[in-house]
Design brief:
alpha+beta
């Protein structure tokens, strides 16, 4: 196991401040905004916007790790290329030799939340900066171990997502039964 700062193993920069690039004659893009990054590594619910003339660095690449900069600092490892990342989201491009899935899971850990709290501002709505994200210290095993843990933790996240769908289905079923009772009156 070795201790490293995130900036030592990744390029880290902010997403696109897309409002400057809005253009009715531009190209349609799926834009990752704050609500797109969900707890437990889920990525969905994009904005569809017409944009023009911005740098390729703001397009997702497979293996990018995205982190919300406002609290609760949700994190996701990107599987789909070509999405546009908006501002207030840190794009973390992990170097070869490190597993992005594992790094994404590490960034959701309580030790990282504690570091962000200690490094961060004392505002009512906590927010972190790129400088603070670059200073985060991670304890990393060798690459093969990272891959194994990354796969295991991905499987656990998938199970959590499925379990939450079952809970939502059961809530809807309960509500439907109660509504039928009201309608039977």
């Amino acid at each position: 196991m070795k201790k490293v700062k995130l900036a030592e193993i990744a390029e880290i920069f902010s997403g696109l401040s897309y409002r400057r690039y809005l253009d009715d004659k531009g190209i349609d893009f799926h834009v990752i905004v704050q609500r797109s990054i969900k707890k437990d590594g889920e990525l969905s619910d994009f904005d569809n916007l017409k944009l023009s003339d911005f740098k390729d660095r703001y397009f997702t690449r497979k293996g990018d790790v995205l982190m919300k900069m406002p609290y609760p600092y949700d994190v996701v490892c990107v599987k789909e290329e070509g999405l546009v990342v908006s501002d207030r989201i840190a794009i973390i491009r992990v170097e070869k030799g490190y597993d992005p899935d594992f790094i994404a899971h590490m960034l959701t850990n309580a030790h990282i939340k504690k570091q962000l709290h200690e490094l961060g501002s004392s505002q009512k709505l906590p927010h972190t900066s790129l400088k603070e994200i670059k200073e985060l210290e991670l304890v990393l095993p060798d690459y093969d171990t990272q891959v194994k843990y990354g796969e295991l933790l991905n499987t656990i996240n998938e199970k959590i997502a499925e379990d939450l769908k079952v809970v939502e289905y059961d809530r809807n079923l309960k509500e439907g039964i109660l509504n039928q009772l009201w309608e039977a009156q």
